[in-house]
Design goal:
This protein is of the alpha/beta class and 372 residues long. The chain is 30% helix and 23% strand. Strands 1, 10, 11, 12, 13, 14, 15, 16 and 17 form a nine-stranded mixed beta sheet that branches. Strand 7, helix 8 and strand 8 form a beta-alpha-beta unit. It is elongated. The two termini are 43 Å apart. The site of pyridoxal-5'-phosphate has 12 residues, from loops.
Length: 372
C-alpha cells in the first residue's frame, strides 16, 4: 500500500496536508470511462474534488458534463469552460437571482437545475423569463431516498407538464439519486436499485407517450454506478462523484468497487508522545471529515496495532504498545473514510506525480461564493 503512495521528498509538504495522487486520479477516471463505455454517458459530480484542475483532467478523458451541489461549484465548472453544469440541488431564496446571474455571466456553459415542486418551477420560470433567459430543468424523481424529489405518479406527470408549459424553462428530462442504495452485497444492491428505478423508467415512458421531451436521464452515485453503467437506455447518464478520488469508506464496504483506488490522502506528522503508549499526530477534525464518528474517520497507513482514542480540532491521539517507535516529526499517511467533506477542509491539495511533489491545486469550489 505504501509503495503506491511513496513520496520522494516531503519537505515541501506542510502538515496536515491534503495530497492528490494525479496518476491515481487519472486511473480512476479511465476506469469510470471504461465501465460506462462512452464519456458522454458520464455527468461526474464535482462535489468530491471541488477542484478546477480535476475538471480539466476530466475533459482530457472526454468528460464534459458535471454535476454540482452548489452555485459556487457550478461557477467553478463554468470558469473551466465546461460545456455542461447541472446544479442538483433545490434553488430557493436569493439563490434564484444568483442562478440568473450565473447563467448570464457564463454564456458558454449550458446550465441545468432540478425541480421537484410546482412552486420552484414557477419561481425559476419567473426569474428566467424576466431576465430573458431559458434554463434547462430536470424533474428530480424520488425513488426511495426521501431527501428531495417527487415520487413517480400523477403529481409528477402534472409537474412535468407544468414545467414544460412555463416560459423561461426548457424541460430536458429526469434526475434520480438513490444514495440509500448502499447495500454492501452487490446482488442485493442491484436488485433493490433496479426495482426502484423501474417506476422512474415507466414515468419517463408515460411522459414521452404524452409527447413531452425527456432526452436526459441522470442517475446514481458511486455505489450504483456499476449498475447504471451497464444499462443501454438511451439518454442515461451516470453521476458518481466519490470514485474520482475514492476513499476508505467506499473501498472497505464495496468489494465490487475495488477497481477504484483512493487517490486523496492526508500527510500527518507526530507532534507529541505524551505517555509511553500514546502518540499524537497533527490530524484533527479540522483536517479530516468528522463524518463518520470518532475513531473511524481515517486509517493510518503502516502504523502497527493501535486504536484512535482522541481527536480534537488539531490533534489525533492513538494508543499503541508500539509508541516508542515514534518520535516528533515522523510522517504517516492516512486515507480519509469520507473524502468529499475532507477535501472541503483544505484550501489546496499537494499534487503527487510519479512519487514526487509537483505542485498544488486549489480547492476553489470549497467556497460558498465565488463571484456571483
Ligand atoms: C445528487 C447526488 N448525485 C450524485 C452523488 C454522488 O454520489 P457518490 O458520492 O456516491 O459518488 C451525490 C452524493 O452525495 C448526490 O447527492
Amino acid at each position: 500500500m505504501t509503495d503506491l503512495y511513496q513520496i520522494a521528498d516531503t519537505s515541501g509538504i506542510l502538515s496536515p496536508g491534503l495530497l492528490f495522487y494525479a496518476d491515481l486520479i487519472r486511473q480512476n477516471l479511465a476506469r469510470a470511462v471504461e465501465l460506462v463505455g462512452d464519456p458522454s454517458r458520464l455527468c461526474l459530480h464535482v462535489k468530491t474534488h471541488k477542484c478546477p484542475e480535476i475538471v480539466k483532467l476530466e475533459r482530457s478523458y472526454g468528460i464534459t458534463k458535471h454535476k454540482c451541489a452548489t452555485i459556487a461549484e457550478a461557477e467553478m465548472v463554468a470558469q473551466c469552460g465546461a460545456a455542461d453544469a447541472l446544479i442538483s440541488y433545490p434553488i430557493v431564496g436569493p439563490n434564484v437571482q444568483r442562478l440568473v446571474a450565473l447563467v448570464k455571466a457564463y454564456p458558454a456553459t449550458r446550465f441545468a437545475a432540478l425541480v421537484d415542486h410546482p412552486l420552484s418551477a414557477q419561481m425559476l420560470s419567473d426569474a428566467m423569463s424576466k431576465a430573458g433567459l431559458v434554463l434547462d430543468v430536470l424533474m428530480d424523481v424520488d425513488v426511495g431516498h426521501h431527501r428531495t424529489g417527487i415520487a413517480p405518479g400523477p403529481e409528477a406527470i402534472a409537474l412535468y407538464e407544468q414545467m414544460n408549459r412555463l416560459s423561461g424553462l426548457r424541460t430536458v428530462g429526469l434526475h434520480v439519486y438513490d444514495g440509500h442504495n448502499n447495500q454492501a452485497n452487490f446482488v442485493e444492491r442491484e436488485t433493490e436499485t433496479l426495482k426502484q428505478f423501474n417506476p422512474a423508467l415507466k414515468l419517463r415512458e408515460t411522459l414521452s407517450v404524452k409527447g413531452l421531451p425527456t432526452p436526459r436521464l441522470i442517475a446514481g452515485g458511486t455505489p450504483t454506478f456499476p449498475i447504471y453503467a451497464r444499462m443501454t437506455i438511451p439518454g442515461l447518464e451516470c453521476s458518481p462523484g466519490t470514485l474520482v478520488l475514492h476513499d476508505h469508506g467506499y473501498g472497505a464496504k464495496f468489494a465490487d468497487l475495488k477497481t477504484f483506488t483512493p487517490a486523496a490522502l492526508l500527510l500527518t506528522r507526530v507532534i507529541s508522545r505524551p505517555t509511553p503508549t500514546r502518540v499524537t499526530f497533527d490530524l484533527g477534525n479540522k483536517a479530516v471529515a468528522s463524518d463518520p464518528g470518532p475513531g473511524k474517520r481515517l486509517i493510518l497507513l503502516d502504523v502497527p496495532a493501535h486504536e484512535q482514542v482522541l481527536q480534537n480540532e488539531e490533534h489525533l491521539g492513538i494508543e499503541t504498545p508500539h509508541a516508542s517507535q515514534f518520535k516528533p516529526g515522523d510522517e504517516v499517511l492516512a486515507i480519509p473514510t469520507h473524502v468529499c467533506p475532507t477535501v472541503a477542509l483544505h484550501r489546496y491539495a499537494y499534487v503527487i506525480e510519479a512519487g514526487r511533489l509537483v505542485g498544488t491545486w486549489a480547492i476553489t469550489g470549497r467556497d460558498r461564493v465565488l463571484s456571483v
